[in-house]
Amino acid sequence: MAIKTTVSQLAKLPAMNAPVITLNLNLNKLAYDANEQLRVKNILKDIQKEVGPSIDGFVSEVNDLIRQELPYDGITMIADRTGAQVYYLIRTSVDEAGYRSENSIDFLSLLSESPNADYTLIELNRDNSKLYQLQNKRVSPLAVDKYPLTMQDALGTELRGGELNFSARGGNAQYHGHNETSQEKQIDQERYYRFINDLLADDAALADHQFILMGLPQNINLFKKLSRGLKLAAIVIDQSVQNLSPTQIADLVNAKIEDYNKTHSNDAITKVFRDKLFTDITNIENMLNANQIRHLFVASKDEINEHDPELYAKINEMIKQALAQDASVSVVKDTNDMPLVSAVS
């Protein structure tokens, strides 16, 4: 039976017998696309021709996983020429099926292909709000039980400003007038945002979620000021998205995430670790052998192949060694004048 794993867990396995087969599958397409189903069937035939009968067990595992209709957008399956053990990793973005045959596991490619981060998105307006989920770079509405789409839903008769409100306390009817003040509006907005925050913070299903705030800067700043117990992402969409479709919101959020990751990955090297960074590759290898690396930064596959393709195998082995030691490994794009590999002890 194929074993679900992670890139770090793969790095701790014994070396596999070459060739190592890495197969990417788009499970969404396989569920309905006849052309994709035919493509996978032909790929499996190609693998059998290349490796021989010993890989038949791997082919059987692939077909078995496909039949299971796993709840993932895609997976990456890995096995060596013996096909004795098959591993798979969850993927959130596979364009179409494809495979590669290599002498060893390509850890740099696996890290580059790792799942996109998912977020919960909160659209913040003064008196209304919506929730969305970002999964596999796609945005869709998110339903949360008792979530107050409007300030009225949250506060009911406790609204202090705005339209005429009615409440009864101890048998005495009380009316609140039409003439709202800016102070009353502010109080209502704060109470509304606290209501939203507390509801989300108490929802066990959202406990590990990161939240991206979307709205006018004053709304985002107020929510941040009041927020307690939520994991707010550093990424924000500081503009109104009230009239945008989910697709337009996805374009906006994905662009912000990509820009943030690029900037802060480079910042991690050039600023945060500026005085602690080792860049001599021999020195880094020695530190890995002594289990002294805490962070390993490597350039993208394309950058390495462009500048020094003969170094790729060595860097890939360094990645495996770092992962096996539970060190953090980051693939950094657009490193400009930075070395292809650097590390922090």
Which labels suit this protein?
single chain; 345 residues; alpha/beta; 3 domains; 5-stranded mixed beta sheet; 16 strands; globular
Topology, please?
Blueprint: E1 3-4, H1 7-11, E2 20-26, H2 27-32, H3 34-51, H4 56-67, E3 74-79, E4 87-91, E5 98-102, H5 107-112, E6 119-124, E7 129-135, E8 138-141, H6 151-155, E9 165-169, E10 172-176, H7 182-201, E11 210-215, H8 217-226, E12 231-237, H9 246-272, E13 277-278, H10 281-289, E14 295-299, H11 301-307, H12 312-324, E15 328-332, E16 341-344
Parallel strand pairs: 1-4, 6-11, 11-12, 14-15
Antiparallel strand pairs: 2-3, 2-5, 3-4, 6-7, 7-8, 9-10, 13-16, 14-16
Organism: Lentilactobacillus parafarraginis F0439
InterPro entries: BaeRF_family6
Protein name: Bacterial archaeo-eukaryotic release factor family 6 domain-containing protein
